[in-house]
Amino acid sequence: MPTPAGHGETILVADDNESNRELLSALLSVEGYQVICATDGAQALKHANSDAIDLALLDVVMPRRTGFEVCQAVKSKPETRLTPVILLTSLNSDADRIHGIMCGADDFLNKPVNKHELLARVHSLLRLKHFTDELDNAETVLFSLALSIEAKDPYTEGHCDRLSKYSVALAEKLGLPEDLRVALRRGGLIHDIGKLAVPESILLKPGPLTPEERKIMEQHTIAGERICIPLRSFRNVLPIIRHHHEKQDGSGYPDGLKGEQIPLTARILQVTDIYDALSTDRPYRKALPTEKALAIMREEVKRGWWDGSILDEFEAFVHGHEPAHPAGSRG
Q1: How far apart are CA 139 and CA 129, in angstroms?
Q2: Is there a contact between 110 and 133 (Cβ–Cβ < 8 Å)?
Q3: What CATH class has 10-132?
Q4: What is d(CA 16, CA 18) in angstroms, rounded to the nearest whole number?
Q5: Please, are residues 210 and 243 in contact by the beta-carbon 8 Å criterion?
Q6: pTM for this prediction
Q7: Does the N terminus or the C terminus of the chain have fewer Cβ atoms within 10 A?
Q8: Could you confirm whether domain 152-320 is CATH 3.30.930.10?
Q9: Angle, helix 67-76 to helix 94-102, in steps of 10 degrees
Q10: How far apart, in Å, are the Cα atoms of 197 and each of 45, 223, 226?
């Protein structure tokens, strides 16, 4: 069965049997892949951590670290967890397959390896990784654009990074699942990306905005949602971007949502956003002390603006983890 040639992708082959390593290396090299070989599990993990590996072929039974252990270690690190792993094994029991799946393996190949099956599965997983890399690159561009907005105003330096960290910490305290914590980490960084559509004359205006200018500014939540909609991985981030300026009493924007109509993740970001704005320097005032900032937020809860239960949890967090932060934000 013909298979497309490789395009220079780097494949790690780990097997303690020299004949197996040489065979796999020869099959892959002919197809245009770069091959790095490891003679045991510890060496394989070292290569996975230090080299730019596009795919790993791991023998299950190896000295020092088994293929299961190497796979689990690779999949547990953010830097390498998207690297496809194929386990090579002569073990055929369901228990071994299940163990491999639990360790994060993307595929299995039985020994002795069939050449055509090997190349087909390698090609398929590398094609999937290519799509994943493109998605990762798109996310990186969005984060860079968000930081470019922040960089325009010295009073917003570090604002997005603090919101991301505050929001994730608060989500953990509230027991939110991993997917929503990831959404808050991303949302903290890019919640204001829609300000790309706001003229700098409005975005950086030192004084109060006119009603017309305020209307334009308030469109940034909708613009931000439109920018991020094409990324399917951002589906949990979109409600944060669109609704982080809603208020509990329905007086916020863009949709006038009330109470629990406002997504929980957006309510979390609201609280961290307001606190950071109050507790950092602004063009018109110095940063407020922690207790003063929290007192103002308490008054705003009474007015029906923010979620008081989330503020309770955030206040407890702030008292235990008060960071230094020199800047605030507009919007």
Answers
A1: 15
A2: no
A3: alpha beta
A4: 6
A5: no
A6: 0.62
A7: N
A8: no
A9: 30
A10: 45, 7, 11
Q: How far is CA 330 from CA 164, 195, 214, 273, 279, in A?
A: 17, 10, 11, 10, 13
Alpha carbon 97 to chain centroid, angstroms:
29
Which tokens hold the place of 253?
């924007």
The residue ranges of every structural domain in the chain are 10-132, 152-320
Q: Are the C-beta atoms of 59 and 88 separated by less than 8 Å?
A: yes
Per-residue pLDDT of the chain (331 residues; tens, 9 = 90+): 334 445 679 999 999 999 999 999 999 999 999 999 999 999 999 999 888 899 999 999 899 899 999 999 999 987 888 899 999 988 777 787 788 888 999 888 888 889 999 999 899 899 888 877 766 667 777 877 777 777 766 556 778 888 999 999 999 999 999 999 999 999 998 999 998 888 888 888 878 899 999 999 999 999 999 988 888 788 999 999 999 999 999 999 999 999 999 999 999 999 999 999 898 876 667 888 999 999 999 999 999 999 999 999 999 988 876 544 433 344 4
Q: Which of 189, 220, 191, 30 is nearest to 118 (CA)?
A: 30
Sign, CA torsion 240/245/249/255: negative
Three-class secondary structure of residue 15 per DSSP: coil
Joined tokens for residue 320: 């235990």
Distance CA 47, CA 247 (A): 51
Q: CA 33, 34, 39, 41 torsion: positive or negative?
A: negative
CB 278 within 8 A of CB 254: no
What would the two tokens of residue 49 be? 């951590």
User: Roughly what angle, to the nearest 10 degrees, separates helices 264-278 and 159-174?
Assistant: 130
Token reading at 202: 């409005």
Which candidate, 50, 72, 69, places its Cα nearest to that of 60? 69
